[in-house]
Structure formats: C-alpha cells, structure tokens
Amino acid sequence: MKDIAEGFRRFTTEVFPAQAALFERLATTHQPSTLFIGCSDSRVVPELVTQSDPGELFVIRTAGNLVPPCAPGAGADGVAASIEYAVTVLGVTSVIVCGHSGCGAMTALSSDGDLAALPAVAAWLRHGAAARARSDAGDFPAAEDEVAALVRDNVLCQLANLRTHPAVVRALARNEVTLHGWVYDIASGSVEEFETGGGRLLTPAG
Ligand SMILES: [Zn+2]
C-alpha cells in the first residue's frame, strides 16, 4: 500500500502538472470514443496496451472479460448499466471485448477444478459456459492449447452476449457503433483481432 500511496503522490506532484491542459479539459468533458471490456487481470492494462490518454476509453473490467447477456428483471447489473450508459449517453462508436493469454478465469473454466470454496466465482463463470461448449468440440494436444482456444471462443461468445443488450442492438441498427474482438498476448505484446468466423493479426507476434 505504501508504494501505491507514493505513486499517487508522484502523480499529483509530477505527472498532473505536466499534463495540466489535458486534465483541465477533462474536468468538464467526458467524450470517450471506445468502450473497452477487458479482464480484471492486473497484467492487462487497457490504457497501456492501446496507448490511450485519460478520457479516451470507457472501461469495464470483469473476471474473464465476461459480459452477462441482457436479463431484464434480474436486478441491479453493473455491467449492463455501464454498457447502456457508454453506448446511449456517451455515444461510444466502438466496443472492444479483449481476452488475454494465461487468463485465470478461462483456466478455471477449462480445468473443471473444484470451486466449492469460491461460490461467487463458480456462479460468475457460468457466463462462460457457451464458450466452454464451443472449445469442448475441439481436439487439443496440450492443456495450454485448450485454454488458448477457450480464450478466443470466449471473446466471440461475449460479443454475442453484448448483442443482446438493447442499447447495443439500437446502436448497431443505426450503424452508430462497431464491435471488435481482441486477444492480447502477454508474452509477446501482440494483439489479435477476431471477426466472427475467423481472425487476423493486428500486430505481428514477437
Ligand atoms: Zn483474465
């Protein structure tokens, strides 16, 4: 915690003054162009990997970058509320769902481990069941390959869940927003972008 407090002190005394004009503008303006939905994993930092400034990304981070499908009447849902606000009020023009290599949530989902002591995790991972079903259809020589495939399938499944949210449905119908699926590789720093049914590399690996 001491390091965190020291970091905040350095931000206030060194970083903030150096970008005073940016923060002065941001004090009264909030117009992010992109909703970035990523994993809570500490190694996946949206602003770092996209080289974005404060004010450019509206971010939702959940374990496994899972996006529960729209469930009217299910009660308060922070993910649904954030999606609705970003798309309808802030008017973001792109939404990125970003998975990543070595994802703990996807590893747990893939391994059928005992989650009896983690009931909240077990309940949350049910939102990855469709991705698990897709990956189960594959044939993988190693457990790491299975997790990597699940990470990719999960991004596509969460994009499908995203399309169940009315705000997204409306924005797509008006061509006001585009959806993107990414997988970030921690070891190489590369990002792979997926279209439904296929994929292509945004940046070369290595
Ligand atoms: Zn993760």
Automatic annotation (TrEMBL):
What one GO molecular function would you report for this record?
zinc ion binding
InterPro entries assigned to the protein according to its UniProt record, in alphabetical order = Beta_CA_cladeB, Carbonic_anhydrase, Carbonic_anhydrase_CS, Carbonic_anhydrase_sf
- Return the EC number: 4.2.1.1
A GO biological process held by the record: carbon utilization
Its required cofactor(s), as named, are:
Zn(2+)
Q: Where does Zn(2+) bind?
A: 39, 41, 100, 103
Q: What Pfam family does this protein match (any one)?
A: Pro_CA
User: In its keyword annotation, does this UniProt entry include Ribonucleoprotein?
Assistant: no
Reaction(s) catalysed by this chain, per the record, are: hydrogencarbonate + H(+) = CO2 + H2O
Annotated cofactor note: Binds 1 zinc ion per subunit.
What keywords sit in the KW lines? Answer: Lyase, Metal-binding, Zinc
Q: Does the keyword Metal-binding apply?
A: yes
- Please give the function described in this protein's UniProt entry: Reversible hydration of carbon dioxide.
The Swiss-Prot or TrEMBL record describes its family as follows: Belongs to the beta-class carbonic anhydrase family.
* Name of the protein: Carbonic anhydrase
